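Technical note accompanying the year-one report. For the benefit of new consortium partners, we illustrate the data format agreed upon in the data management plan: each record pairs a sequence with a structure-token string. No post-processing was applied to the example shown here.
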Amino acid sequence: MISRIKVPGRPAGRLNTPLRLVGKLVPVLKAYSGIRATDRNAKSLATLGRLGTLEVRLARTSAEIRRAQKLRYDVFYKEMSAIADTALYFARRDIDLFDAVCDHLLVIDHGARTLHKAPAIVGTYRLLRQDIAERTGGFYSAGEFDVGSLVARHRDLKFLELGRSCVLPPYRSKRTVELLWHGIWAYVLEHRMDVMIGCASLDGTDPDRLALPLSFLHHYARAPEPWRTMALPHRYLELNRMPKAAVAPKTALQLLPPLIKGYLRLGAFVGDGAVIDRQFGTTDVLIILPVSAIRARYLAHFGPGAELLNRMVFLLRENKVGALARRQDVFVQIEEVDPRPDRRCGGAGLDIAEL
């Protein structure tokens, strides 16, 4: 039975306000030191899965969180095109205030050691539950999208925000993806989460150059009204840039990042509008994935004791799983189109097999 929660008065206001702790010394120190502010129990620190020398679990110490921040910096700022401010440049870690309130999912290789003899952290993912967001100031994605009104329309459901995910280049394989998803699903089950949300990015900040994939998402993957929410008015970028008749679905699908294609196959929707993130050089859309909307045959793989997403992982080509593009991207990257006839984008009725 899904547990019920109460959304405090005016939840849209609370959840639509990104964490605003600037000027408060303690949260800043916690973020930089890797100290997590919220409570944990022993169960939450247990191993969530193993595959050979790889283990997936939540970070247990501030040192592990700092190492995850270092991994994120190496991928986002050194390998990719994110622009670090002065503080991040000198820290050589990707840090923000949400690090103090989120759970940090880690993939650890016990067969590889750091200079300090600790097992190497080779993949990471940041998780923020609704109950934590409500107590600490809001979701990260509320800086781009009207997340609060979405939560307010689904008061009986529990939301989980996914983000800040990346993997070291040598580990961008199906093994690491298996473990990340195994960890995410174990977390969803433990906390009885009902909806996963997060931002997914398209490379580039010129909407005219992205007109075809953005219009494809508008016409074929836009969330139905109960799940629809908009980009914030002052950041809103229209997805509907071409009439539906002018959109070549097969071509547009090829232009979508693999992570977005993967989530559409699972049953995800996208919100109304996009947001340009100039720091990371991307155009972001909001992914909305109710657990109830996940395709039945994928959900069967999610079950306790089963290999997660076996079919999805089978589609992943060795070493074709890149770091998640930028900040809050949801982690599924699939390089192929599923040939089965029932794979439909986001419940919108588009048969990918026909493209």
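Partners are asked to follow this layout when depositing records. The radius of gyration is 19 Å.
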